[in-house]
Design a protein that fits this description.
- The complex is a heterodimer of chains A (about 500) and B (about 350).
- With about 500 residues, chain A is an alpha/beta fold.
- Chain A has 2 domains: about 180 residues, P-loop containing nucleotide triphosphate hydrolases (Rossmann fold, 3-Layer(aba) Sandwich); about 240 residues, Rossmann fold.
- Chain A is built from 19 helices and 22 strands.
- In chain A, helix 4 packs across helix 5.
- Chain A starts with a strand and ends with a helix.
- With about 350 residues, chain B is mainly alpha-helical.
- Chain B has one domain: Orthogonal Bundle (ABC transporter involved in vitamin B12 uptake, BtuC).
- Chain B contains 13 helices and 2 strands; from the N terminus they run H-H-H-H-H-H-E-E-H-H-H-H-H-H-H.
- Chain B has a two-stranded antiparallel ribbon with strand order 1-2.
- Chain B is globular.
- Classes of the chains: A alpha/beta (about 500), B mainly alpha (about 350).
Chain lengths: ~500, ~350
Amino acid sequence: MLSLHAARKSFGAVRALVDGSIDLYPGEVHALLGENGAGKSTMVKILAGVHRPDGGEVLIDGRPVVLSDPAAARDAGIAIIYQEPNLFPDLSVAENVFMGRQPLRSGRRIDTSAMHDQVEAVLERLGVRLDPGRISRGLSIADQQIVEIAKALTLRARVIVMDEPTAALSAVEVDRLFRVVSALRADGAAVMFISHRLEEVFSLCQRVTVMRDGRHVVTKSIGELTVDEIVRAMVGRELVQRDVVTRAETGKTVLRVERLSREGAFTDVTFEVRAGEIVALAGLVGAGRSEVACTIFGIDRRDAGSVTVAGRVLKSGSPNDAMAAGVGFVPEDRRQQGLVMSMSIERNIALASLGRLRRHGIVLRAVERSFAADWGARLHLKYGRLSNAASTLSGGNQQKVVLAKWLSREPQVLIVDEPTRGIDIGTKAEVHRLLVELADSGVAILMISSELPEVLRLADRILVMREGRLVADFTGAEATEELVVGAATGQPSGARR
Amino acid sequence: MTVPLAKPGGGLTASSAENPKRLADAIFRAREFGIVAVLVGFVAVTTTIQHRFLEAQNIKFIFLDATIFALLALGETMVVVSRNVDLSVGSVLGLSAYLSASLFGHVHGIPIPVVFLAGLGIGTACGVVNGAIIAVGRVPSLVVTLATLYIIRGVDVLIVGGNQVVVSSLPDSFIAIGQSTLLGVPDVTLVVAALIGAGAYYLRTFRSGRELYAIGSNPDAARLAGIPTARRIFTSFVLSGAIAGIAGVVWAAYYGTVDSTAGTGYELTVVSAVVVGGVAIFGGSGSVIGAAFGALLLETINTALYVLGISAFWDQAIAGFLLICAITLDHGITVMLTSALRRRSPRGA
């Protein structure tokens, strides 16, 4: 019914999609799998008409079509159900379904009762009870997705693309969604289903396509593949050799996290990090890793549990308290959270140390500058002038500025969230070396990274999170990519071999 | 997809489908009742203290003053529900009032409908300028209409100079517009009430009206739903301008004397009336009827304080206080409603 053939898409120098190919057939649910960054979302956006591919083609019923904008994709019969639907919160369910094309009666007036009847009929076909007249504010994510599916049905969409629809749903809601999808399939729709949960794929889908690094790897019917084969196709790389010096001994426990919970994000997370140890939090995007980091540092309040740094219990929701206890935090999004982009390099570096640099309440520029120059040299920071704005630096050097900001406080605990995202290979190696040096000097490091090779190379211990819970704990020596991916996706692949 | 889908397992949502709707309706009705209740309460208290408050003459004045603001609020509501604001209405009213009223001096025996058309034309022209800059140029409406507030007032002052239109230059039939009543209610008020009813009906029952709410509720989703966002926003500003133009003619008929300061500061009263009347300042919800009641409430307070001999300063302070109450109340209602609706639709159970 719909084919995407050899689609390419680059964003600047990043090649998000090199060879995106998939064929969808009527009456079939087709799973699209791959690790984070494999190019799945780019493919969805091409089908949605949000991105124009740089190459390749989209065929519908064998005829090439151009999906120039979302309206064109809609007219071509393609409907996208996103993980988080985009509704009008103030308007009714029925209006959300029919906005812009409400049924009319005489005088071009909206026929409200016909609209409600039609929506009610569609919801009944889906086997879902929802009042068409209620406003959509307050609907659960699952119900919002149902509204989007109802919209797709009234648009007579023949291709329905679901981008991780189950990520935010409870088990009961997933069940209901599956029944809806099965109904769609029985009705002849072609469904593309993206999920990280392999058990869902096996119970719902008839065909599987695996992507890796923007390329199509394999397409087979579900019966021809085992969990192991899928995981291996997703990971793909030869197993990376650890070139880590096993640091002989680590010190006493510095960071202790006990039964930490935050509603809607993660539950009952308990672990320790010792001085001189690098502990990695692995898992899929959305597993709750960054949320744990933010809660430890006090950016988010915790709902239960405790965080202890060197025997001192941190106050909930107080980054100041965390900093006073010697915790440093290099956040995931350095442009938004790590740096003041328009401020000079020297001021960014000194920002977290102003209390120590001040004399009689005044921070002298010269003091700030020599402090920044000192740390810049230690981290091999490449810059034009210290007075230039941080935005003038490359991504890797920006990250070094964030690191310098925290290292200059001589932290006992350093939390780094995706420390090398979007950084070139050379600087990446420097950041790695830096983290190892820090650990050797006795700092306890908690690292979050979606790059498995990085995690395997650096970490002394790897904790795997899935759906807000810690599900596995590997030592650096025993961990393999397959073990970690298996734990992260809920498929203990090692056990089945 | 014409084959009916299999209906798996019957109804899957256990919660009553009716409850959340009733709750939402009840709260929104309560919101408009709230304004009426405050209004009634104010009138009651004032009348107890000062019995003359409810005299026919007073009621007529309140209605007349409120009528102009309610008319302006009609246009303003269309703009505000789409997450915009029109601050230029006071200046447009002033320009239209002077130019249309001065026509009587320039053209002898000019028919009154032509004067209304002139006011309408002036207002529409101002609205087109606002709408074009905002919709085509994608400049925030707050900035654009703040600028045109000053520019249009400037043009007004330039044209009027130290002159003024005086009552004696206006024909009696024109003055009568602001005087004649039906059962104690001014005719103008009745006409404006009908206009507001028509406006409410339009916003509720026509696609373009609902699309204004959609744009205010979620601009991105509106664009994805294929709504011509720019055109809708443009139209809302043209309508707001046109209505302000007509309001200018009514203003001239009512007050009789027009100089270059006519309508100064009205924009803030109008926006206050709209917000006090339950229109969400960030768009998406509210009605023109609520906004009209908001205007009536503010005007009643104004007159009541005058009758009670309380300083006009308190009038503005109370208007500001009401504004804060309204916004806090609306925010509280939204939060409460959201959590109430969540609780009543258990996740997929």
